[in-house]
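Hi, here's the filled form for the chain we discussed.

Project: internal
Contact: R.S.
Residues: 110
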Amino acid sequence: LAGGAVEHLIFAGCNLEEAKAAAIAGGLAGLKLSVKKLHFRSNSEIPASAWSTLLQALAGGAVEDLIFSQCELDEAKAAAIAGGLAGLKLSVKKLHFGSNSEIPASAWST
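And the returned structure, exactly as it came back:
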């Protein structure tokens, strides 16, 4: 699919973990100019390092809508996502963080 026209990727409830996320990140790099929506809902096993890898693969891309609902995000995962979002600040228009009650107040400021 690299270099293709895929605009929406949905990984909801896929039980992604570090190895799966790393494999996906490798593919995302080749799609970053076309993908506009990424849906990660209900993937609680993705560690902070993998969130960073996934979002870094999209840096400078076209993604507009990211869904992280019900991913059991904590402070470390939220910080990793925030770091990755820096490379997407010119394209992202919507962020969904619903049902992530473990994110502390300090993480919301990043």
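Let me know if anything looks off before we file it.
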